[in-house]
From TrEMBL:
<dbReference type="GO" id="GO:0005886">
    <property type="term" value="C:plasma membrane"/>
</dbReference>
<protein>
    <recommendedName>
        <fullName>Sucrose transport protein SUT2</fullName>
    </recommendedName>
</protein>
<dbReference type="GO" id="GO:0005773">
    <property type="term" value="C:vacuole"/>
</dbReference>
<dbReference type="InterPro" id="IPR036259">
    <property type="entry name" value="MFS_trans_sf"/>
</dbReference>
<keyword id="KW-0813">Transport</keyword>
<feature type="transmembrane region" description="Helical">
    <location>
        <begin position="133"/>
        <end position="150"/>
    </location>
</feature>
<feature type="transmembrane region" description="Helical">
    <location>
        <begin position="213"/>
        <end position="236"/>
    </location>
</feature>
<keyword id="KW-0762">Sugar transport</keyword>
<comment type="function">
    <text>Responsible for the transport of sucrose into the cell, with the concomitant uptake of protons (symport system). May also transport other glucosides.</text>
</comment>
<dbReference type="InterPro" id="IPR005989">
    <property type="entry name" value="Suc_symporter_pln"/>
</dbReference>
<feature type="transmembrane region" description="Helical">
    <location>
        <begin position="463"/>
        <end position="484"/>
    </location>
</feature>
<comment type="similarity">
    <text>Belongs to the glycoside-pentoside-hexuronide (GPH) cation symporter transporter (TC 2.A.2.4) family.</text>
</comment>
<dbReference type="GO" id="GO:0008506">
    <property type="term" value="F:sucrose:proton symporter activity"/>
</dbReference>
<keyword id="KW-0769">Symport</keyword>
<feature type="transmembrane region" description="Helical">
    <location>
        <begin position="392"/>
        <end position="415"/>
    </location>
</feature>
<dbReference type="GO" id="GO:0005985">
    <property type="term" value="P:sucrose metabolic process"/>
</dbReference>
<feature type="region of interest" description="Disordered">
    <location>
        <begin position="1"/>
        <end position="54"/>
    </location>
</feature>
Length: 536
């Protein structure tokens, strides 16, 4: 009759899941005996069951296509929203805090959604286990981008002053609500997408890498379309109704781009959700309905699962964290760096606003080139991992990241000491060097989008975790570094003069250390556990 402790809840939940898993595998390993109708042996032996039919690669391709729609909006978010939020009146020092809501939502949303999708039996849902969450997340993204895009107009209804340079508090509040929902939708969609691919590949190492390479390829395609959309400044001509008293040309372009995002997201979500069916031969052991205390013990199960991790799993999480400490300053300030440090513009000073927007558009063009390289690298990712080993590929890519961030610091120093002339336009060589760095970074970004997920999917199979919860745990090693960077990058930059260079120093150091850890601590062998050749 005594109350049970959280640890007992967690241990009992783990014990029940392990027992179910062993029982199910035992039933699969021992098929029913057939009568011995032949004459030969005196003992009857069970005929081995036929191997399950593998999901075709074209189905994996369709299942991964939703990444294009999600990443299209994410590319617009990365390239345009940091400049836009500064136009609304949030200072540069606090712009990174706006992005804090993304990691905070991802801290619990993705693990929780993954856990819930693990608990759904395919027979109990017309769309299977993962696809209802993918569809709901896509709907949340569509609603949130409309909220963000029309935040200036909604702020006007709340009495905002629309004079250039004024702080629009109403628009900022609406923007923050939409931005928060957007990140919730992104996290609620991408986790089940990754878990869906893991279900379809049945944790086969080679097919898991191929599926994640498809996912990375569609992310690259979404990035290309999104950054190209952000680099074009004439969308308001196609959607003339987007220009209002409270929404200038740059705001109207942002609003129009998000309308295009909804169209592409709807198409790709339909392809992934409707045209691909769940794999009926995999994951049924994880689909038992939750007991009354299992949902209650979710957080204890999530964090309590750490004690079951082997050293290879810990190494994947550590390298992932260091990698994202490197990426997040670049993701936050890439186009802002181009507008401020290279084009010497400012969203706060009216006279320098045009130069800043020219730099932001050039930065979006650089990110489009980055995505082209990301897509090309994704195609060859399987061969690279097979030849050199996933750990070595990941480590080398992180060192390339570090060198690129150091190159950005050198470019910043050179640009600060150059005379731009009366026109104020940056020299062609400086712009070209910046674009080259942006382009090269596409290769390590492709590695970041594929290898960590493939490694996590193949290494948690023997831990008794569902793939949804596994992707959520990997997500913790992404969002926790993002929280640290979001809280610290703005004050850190202000401490050294207000530019973006101090954050890039931290990014370069973290990337380099992560590369060394990956090379020394991650195996170069093939991903995933070895297949068992005998059964007991």
């Amino acid at each position: 009759g005594r109350a049970r402790s959280p640890a007992e809840f967690s241990q009992e939940a783990w014990g029940e899941r392990a027992a179910k898993k062993v029982q199910h595998r035992s039933s699969r390993a021992m098929p029913p005996r057939r009568p011995n109708t032949g004459g030969g042996g005196g003992t009857s032996s069970a005929a081995p069951p036929p191997p399950p039919r593998k999901v075709p690669l074209r189905s994996l391709l369709r299942a991964a296509s939703v990444a294009c729609g999600v990443q299209f909006g994410w590319a617009l978010q990365l390239s345009l929203l940091t400049p836009y939020v500064q136009e609304l009146g949030i200072p540069h020092a606090f712009a990174s805090l706006v992005w804090l809501c993304g990691p905070l939502s991802g801290l619990l949303v993705q693990p929780l959604v993954g856990h819930l999708s693990d608990r759904i039996a395919p027979a109990n849902s017309p769309l299977g286990r993962r696809r209802p969450f993918i569809a709901a997340g896509a709907a949340s993204i569509a609603f949130s981008v409309l909220t963000v895009g029309f935040s200036a107009d909604l702020g006007r209804l709340f009495g905002d002053n629309i004079v250039p340079g004024s702080t629009r508090f109403g628009a900022i509040i609406v923007y923050l609500i939409g931005f928060w929902l957007l990140d919730v939708g992104n996290n609620a969609t991408q986790g089940p997408c990754r878990a869906f691919l893991a279900d379809l590949t049945e944790n086969d190492p080679r097919r898991t890498r191929i599926a994640n390479a498809y996912f990375s390829l569609f992310m690259a395609l979404g990035n290309i379309l999104g950054y190209a959309t952000g680099a074009y400044n004439g969308w308001y001509k196609i959607f003339p109704f987007t220009i209002t008293e409270s929404c200038s040309v740059s705001c109207a372009n942002l609003k129009s781009a998000f309308l295009l995002d909804i169209i592409i997201l709807a198409i790709t979500t339909y392809v992934s959700v409707v045209t691909v069916q769940d794999n009926p031969t995999f994951g049924s052991d994880e689909a038992a309905p939750p007991s009354s205390h299992e949902e209650e013990a979710f957080l204890f199960e999530l964090f309590g699962s750490f004690k079951y991790f082997t050293m290879p799993v810990w190494m994947v999480l550590i390298v992932t964290s260091l990698t994202w400490i490197g990426w997040f300053p670049f993701i936050l300030f890439d186009t802002d760096w181009m507008g401020r440090e290279i084009y010497r513009g400012s969203p706060e000073i009216v006279a320098d606003t045009q130069k800043y927007h020219d730099g932001v558009r050039m930065g979006s063009f650089g990110l489009m080139l980055n995505s082209v390289v990301l897509g090309i690298t994704s195609i060859g990712m399987e061969k690279l991992c097979r030849k050199w080993g996933a750990g070595l590929v990941w480590g080398v890519s992180n060192i390339i990241m570090a060198l690129c961030f150091v190159a950005m610091l050198i470019i910043t120093y050179v640009a600060q000491n150059l005379d731009y002339g009366p026109s104020g336009a940056p020299p062609t060589g400086i712009v070209a060097a910046s674009l080259i760095v942006f382009t090269i970074l596409g290769a390590p970004l492709s590695v970041t989008y594929s290898i960590p997920y493939a490694m996590a999917a193949s290494r948690v199979e023997n831990l008794g975790l569902g793939q949804g919860l596994a992707m959520g745990i990997l997500n913790l090693s992404i969002v926790i570094p993002q929280i640290i960077v979001s809280l610290g990058s703005g004050p850190w930059d202000q401490l050294f003069g207000g530019g973006n260079a101090p954050s890039f120093w931290v990014a370069a150091a973290a990337s380099f250390v992560g590369g060394l850890v990956a090379i020394l601590g991650l195996p170069r062998a093939r991903l995933g556990p070895k297949k068992k050749t005998t059964q007991r």
